[in-house]
Design a protein that fits this description.
By secondary structure, the chain is of the alpha/beta class. It has a domain of 83 residues: Nucleotidyltransferase, domain 5. 32% of the residues lie in helices and 19% in strands. It is built from three helices and seven strands. Strands 4-3-2-5-6 form a five-stranded mixed sheet, covered by helices on one side. A two-stranded parallel sheet has the order 1-7. Helix 3 links the parallel strand 5 and strand 6. The radius of gyration is 25 Å and the shape is elongated. The model has no long low-confidence stretch (mean pLDDT 80).
Length: 130
Amino acid sequence: MNLKGRNKVDPSFNMSSMTDIVFLLLIFFMLTSTLVTVSAIDVLLPKAGGKTENNTAVAVTITKNSSFYIDKTKVSNVNLENTILAKVGVDKKKTVVIRGDQNVPYKNVMKVIDIANRNKLKMILAVKGK
């Protein structure tokens, strides 16, 4: 009795289509990452390891002379909370990005963090990559 199988499976695997897909994804991510720009006041951010980016965000910038800016608009300390809440909206789906200069007093950064905590807003502390 001859019990050999009739269908022989070729053990080699062709990787050409897989590499095409990988290169297309690489090109896509390289192009889309160069299109992302942050429209904010120029400050020196402290350095850290992680990086996040969110398009549905409200940027709160604190300069080295303790001036508050919300999306390039200067805001006084008194109107800071009301302006943040107006920019975020009632649905509170936007994230507050805190961009504090590396030489800014810690109490100014904590003021924005306290506002976000009181109003149950999501927040991100922006830093410069290493």
